[in-house]
Q: What sequence folds into this?
């Protein structure tokens, strides 16, 4: 089924994004802005839907819009090694954030445990730790 001449609203519905998201991506250079014909309505097509879905898929994998722009430059599929490097960098970043989250979890577990055992004291161990910058 061919889709031609979609308005921005219809494009947004087809790609499951907000109209303002489309405009933002256009300002960022991630999505083309079609010329405005005499009737005043810009028209989009399947390629625009595919590009929006590409952007959203990359974002779900944790890529920033700057990284998405890099991936879009490699979108023809002929630069797999370059795309792999970007993915490896993203994977390293995700692993580092996971390590940070595990450290945060451990600190919170300890603070919650201290809060439970200090129920009869005046000072809250969690608040006290935050005030001391720990």
A:
């Amino acid at each position: 089924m061919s889709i031609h001449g979609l308005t921005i609203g219809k494009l947004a519905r087809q790609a499951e994004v907000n109209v303002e998201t489309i405009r933002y991506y256009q300002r960022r250079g991630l999505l083309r802005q079609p010329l405005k014909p005499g009737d005043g309505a810009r028209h989009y097509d399947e390629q625009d839907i595919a590009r929006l879905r590409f952007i959203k898929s990359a974002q779900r994998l944790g890529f920033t819009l700057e990284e998405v722009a890099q991936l879009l430059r490699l979108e023809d599929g002929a630069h797999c090694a370059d795309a792999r490097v970007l993915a490896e960098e993203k994977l390293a970043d995700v692993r580092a954030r996971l390590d940070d989250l595990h450290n945060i979890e451990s600190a919170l577990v300890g603070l919650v445990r201290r809060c439970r055992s200090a129920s009869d004291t005046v000072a809250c161990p969690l608040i006290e730790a935050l005030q001391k910058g720990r």
Summary: The radius of gyration is 23 Å. The CA atoms of residues 54 and 72 lie 8 Å apart.
